[in-house]
């Protein structure tokens, strides 16, 4: 009985994954409003009854997809925040974003990764869908809180100036990742090493305009 229950749960999980992935491809291809549940059914090759067993409709599908992605991102950054000190920003961002993209690289639309296009589709939908906006706000807030803890870890370790507001850095890092995903959607795929190297270069800059330190002439 135990084996049968385990197989049954594995089957249910696989079916749910199939539906979410098919819906994600549909939404990335045509947008939320132009996609019908019939489109999703056709994409996944299942009956209406099979799909509605898991999700009540498009709204619930959208929320589940967004919540799943935000949950994985939040978990990765929260884990990093518990390290002492946390990994440097360039390495951390590349690792987390690379993991998120790699986990969904099999989702393709017109020969290009579907995930960046899906992210772009989510943003305008939140302006019309309050439930989705609430999911996104909660996810954004948790990722921002995790990044704030990471920055505080940098400051405790002497890796970052202590006079910088941690939340300002958190917002900036999130903006960099979202902007990079937007670029991929609009202009084509790019490896996460591009973002990593860009952040690394910015982190290495010195302000040559700063006054020299040392003893002052008497």
TrEMBL record:
<dbReference type="Pfam" id="PF00440">
    <property type="entry name" value="TetR_N"/>
</dbReference>
<keyword id="KW-0678">Repressor</keyword>
<dbReference type="InterPro" id="IPR001647">
    <property type="entry name" value="HTH_TetR"/>
</dbReference>
<protein>
    <recommendedName>
        <fullName>HTH tetR-type domain-containing protein</fullName>
    </recommendedName>
</protein>
<dbReference type="InterPro" id="IPR039538">
    <property type="entry name" value="BetI_C"/>
</dbReference>
<dbReference type="InterPro" id="IPR023772">
    <property type="entry name" value="DNA-bd_HTH_TetR-type_CS"/>
</dbReference>
<keyword id="KW-0804">Transcription</keyword>
<dbReference type="InterPro" id="IPR036271">
    <property type="entry name" value="Tet_transcr_reg_TetR-rel_C_sf"/>
</dbReference>
<dbReference type="InterPro" id="IPR009057">
    <property type="entry name" value="Homeodomain-like_sf"/>
</dbReference>
<dbReference type="Pfam" id="PF13977">
    <property type="entry name" value="TetR_C_6"/>
</dbReference>
<feature type="domain" description="HTH tetR-type">
    <location>
        <begin position="13"/>
        <end position="73"/>
    </location>
</feature>
<feature type="DNA-binding region" description="H-T-H motif">
    <location>
        <begin position="36"/>
        <end position="55"/>
    </location>
</feature>
<keyword id="KW-0805">Transcription regulation</keyword>
<keyword id="KW-0238">DNA-binding</keyword>
<dbReference type="InterPro" id="IPR050109">
    <property type="entry name" value="HTH-type_TetR-like_transc_reg"/>
</dbReference>
């Amino acid at each position: 009985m135990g084996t049968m229950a385990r197989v049954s749960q594995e089957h249910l999980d696989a079916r749910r994954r199939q539906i979410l992935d098919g819906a994600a491809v549909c939404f990335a291809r045509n947008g939320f409003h132009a996609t019908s549940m019939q489109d999703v059914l056709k994409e996944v090759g299942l009956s209406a009854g099979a799909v509605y067993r898991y999700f009540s409709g498009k709204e619930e599908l959208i929320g589940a997809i967004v919540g799943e992605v935000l949950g994985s991102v939040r978990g990765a950054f929260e884990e990093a925040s518990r390290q002492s000190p946390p990994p440097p920003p360039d390495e951390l961002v590349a690792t987390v974003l690379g993991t998120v993209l790699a986990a969904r690289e099999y989702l393709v639309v017109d020969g290009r990764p579907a995930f960046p296009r899906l992210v772009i589709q989510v943003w305008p939908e939140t302006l019309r869908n309050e439930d989705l906006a609430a999911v996104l706000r909660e996810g954004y807030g948790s990722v921002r809180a995790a990044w704030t803890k990471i920055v505080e870890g940098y400051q405790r370790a002497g890796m970052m100036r202590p006079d910088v507001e941690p939340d300002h850095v958190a917002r900036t890092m999130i903006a960099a990742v979202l902007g990079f995903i937007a670029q991929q959607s609009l202009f084509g795929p790019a490896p996460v090493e591009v973002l990593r190297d860009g952040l690394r270069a910015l982190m290495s800059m010195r302000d040559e305009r700063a006054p020299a330190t040392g003893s002052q002439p008497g």
